UniProtKB/TrEMBL annotation, chains A, B:
This is DNA-binding transcriptional MerR regulator. Gene3D superfamilies: 1.10.1660.10. Residues 1-70 form the HTH merR-type domain. PANTHER family: HTH-TYPE TRANSCRIPTIONAL REGULATOR ADHR, REDOX-CYCLING DRUG-SENSING TRANSCRIPTIONAL ACTIVATOR SOXR.
Amino acid sequence: MRMAELSRESGVPVATIKYYQREGLLPPGELTSPNQARYGAAHVRRLKLVRALLEIGGLSIAAVGEVLAAIDEPATSTHDILGLAQHGLPAATQEVTDEERAWAMGRIEAMAGRRGWEVHAGSPVVESLAGVLCALRQVGHEWVLDELDTYAAAADTVAEADVTAVAKLGATEAVVEGAVVGTVLGDALLAALRRMAHAQVSRRQFSV
Amino acid sequence: MRMAELSRESGVPVATIKYYQREGLLPPGELTSPNQARYGAAHVRRLKLVRALLEIGGLSIAAVGEVLAAIDEPATSTHDILGLAQHGLPAATQEVTDEERAWAMGRIEAMAGRRGWEVHAGSPVVESLAGVLCALRQVGHEWVLDELDTYAAAADTVAEADVTAVAKLGATEAVVEGAVVGTVLGDALLAALRRMAHAQVSRRQFSV
């Protein structure tokens, strides 16, 4: 298909598609003449993925580029694939002092100990978690951490279902894309469901 | 304290503090002379909250403004307070066709029926959830929805703990701020824990 049809199929305006191409988020089409290119179903699919990561995942253009690089990287074991997909994902960072970081790591290690989780200090995910704990303390809402074990148990249940489902996708490329999409859009899914649940619990507990 | 000390106490550069003031994210100090103002502990606290919402919550400047407006709004019942805090929060939106929306609402209503949840079609939270479902279908990763009930059960467990903890904060202002901070930073906490859990589950299932 030509560019105009790619735009219709994907619902993305032509100018936006060209912008994504300049940013390296979409591979070039197959040139059929010096200034005309042909696109396929893979381009439509990739465009929809870019839109979902930007609009639902809330990622920046640069972060989408990193995620797509993770998807396109060849890898070996399923564990490595999942790790690679995860390390390609942007993590929240927060400036913290040594004292704050030590306090956060203490809380994380205690929680991980109770759940039988391994903690790799320095890994982006652990640093990101430590940043969230420090932010909660900095804004004076440490009480949220009284729920840390409840949150971790919920995360564990969801992660078990995620990994099992992703591993069933089969082909390496599908597993990587599934891991990335499932992680980013899964966050959005969980956040929306949590807000919906807040309304239900609040109605039950406080409504007259 | 003067502006320089406010900057030291909060860890936010003076130029950034002035930018936040222009954007209405920080109330003015008490004028002690035509071009000098005095700031208090409430300013330090508010600055740390703005930083956390921007950096950990990943909100835009405009969205932080809406959240702060929700925090400063006077309200009545705890249920109303929580609703207000939630409606002040930005929700992901996704362009969907009528057919897609109907399909998503069908999935949401079936899930809600199984959990005994009320669904208010048109509420920002339900629309946001419908958007996530449509995005998953658009990118060809509908399989994530096979986990919808697992996600909803996890969200329910966390929401129950959230609402119970927030209600204990007592004063109206504290409950509103707690609800907002708990919702935004709670999303970040859950996302980080879910990624940490992914690594544990993957190691257990696939590592050699």
